[in-house]
Structure formats: C-alpha cells, structure tokens
Amino acid sequence: MERLMPRFRFVLLNALVLALAAPVLLMAPPHAEAASPSPAPAAAAESAKLQQLLEDAFEENLELNPIQATAIGDARYNDLLPNFLSKEDIARQERYARRWLEQMKKLDRSLLSGQDRLSYDIFVRNQELALEGARFPGELIPIDQMSSLHSFFAQMGSGQSIQPFKTEKDYRDWLSRAAAGAASVSSRASRRTANGNAAPMQSEPGSSTSAAPTPV
Predict the structure, then answer these.
(1) How confident is the model at residue 146 (pLDDT cuts 50, 70, 90)?
(2) Which residues make Cβ contacts (< 8 Å) with residue 52, sequence separation at least 6?
(3) Is the pTM of the predicted complex or chain greater than 0.70?
(4) DSSP calls for 169-181
C-alpha cells in the first residue's frame, strides 16, 4: 500500500521523517564517540566521506523539498513549493535518488561501523525505496478529503502550523507558496484528465441515478 500512496503525501511524510531523523543521521551520540577507540586511518577517512555525503545530500534535499526546510526551521525556501505532481519534478526527485545512491555506494561499507553504518544503510534503503516507488504513478491517485495538498495548505495558512507568520516577509513568502500550491492542484487535475481519470458528472441530488462524486 505504501507504494501506492499519493506522491504529495509521500513527500510530506518523508519530509517529517527526515526532519526528525536528521540529527541521528548526521552525527553519532557524544558518549559513543568518547567510549570508542580511535579508528584506523582508512576507517576514519571513510567516515569523513560519509558525513560529507550526508551533509551535501541533506542540503540539496532541502532545496528540492522546501516544505521539509520549513518544518525544521530553515526559512530560506519558505516562499517556494515545487509542483510535486509535474513530470519535471518527478524526474528531478528520481535523479536526486539515483545520483546520491550511486555516490553512497562508492563508499566501502566494510570500513564503517556503529552509527556510520546505520546512517549508510538507512540512506541507501531510502533512495532504493524512492526509485522503486517511482515506478508507480501515485500522482494520479484521486485527491481525498483527509490528506492532500488542499487540506495541508489550509493547515499551513492557519498560522498554527509550520509556516511562520511573524514578519511582512513571512506573509509575502506565504503568498508566493500559496500561488504555487494552487498551480500544483490545477496541474494534478489536468494530468488526471489527460490520463482518462476525469471525474464523471454527478446526477441531480435526489434522482435515482445519483452517484457519489469521484474526487479530482
């Protein structure tokens, strides 16, 4: 079922998971470092490469998924919202996963241990799952009333969610992001129509042929 989740829902869940996991992935607990003996030069060098790869991949992902940046308090991309449902952005997400997976697999996993090996395995697994999930057109799944872009935006614009509303710039950022959100919803409806998934006309209420509307 996870593979068939709408792409936007997957992106949001991924953003929240990564925001929570970032401190774990990017550094080992201080007490673990103090208790461990000094690693061999080769292992230390491989660990340093891993940390740099994780930092670079994480930084690029913030630009790729600006909602995740907002969720962790990074305001640089608060005015942005890529059209997660567009062919261009889907391809961009796939390129990201493929490129960083290739870079990570260039490391020698046998030289990694403890937190480093765990970080390596989680990162590799996440990118492999992303590429596997890209085979399924989740962006064509109908919008529902529980967890979709329109309901998420209502929460963000409430002033009680992750989007800040403290300065004039905050409000201007939100206006830009909201405009991008409207374009994204419109794009989704257009793609579904182009793929033969348009919602049928609903009969007049109370008629014997009346049917439940299909979400668009």
Answers:
(1) confident
(2) none
(3) no
(4) HHHHHHHHHHHHH
- Sequence letter at residue 72: I
* pLDDT tens per residue across span 82-107: 888 888 999 999 999 999 999 999 99
For 167, list phi and psi in degrees, rounded to 5: -125, 170
How big is the CA angle at 150 (ends 60 and 65), to the nearest 5 degrees?
0
- Residue 24: Cβ within 10 Å count: 13
- Tell me which DSSP letter residue 110 carries: G
Torsion of CA 7, 75, 126, 192, to 10 degrees: 10
Within a 10 A sphere around the Cβ of 40, how many other Cβ atoms? 10
Q: What is the largest CA-CA distance in the chain?
A: 78
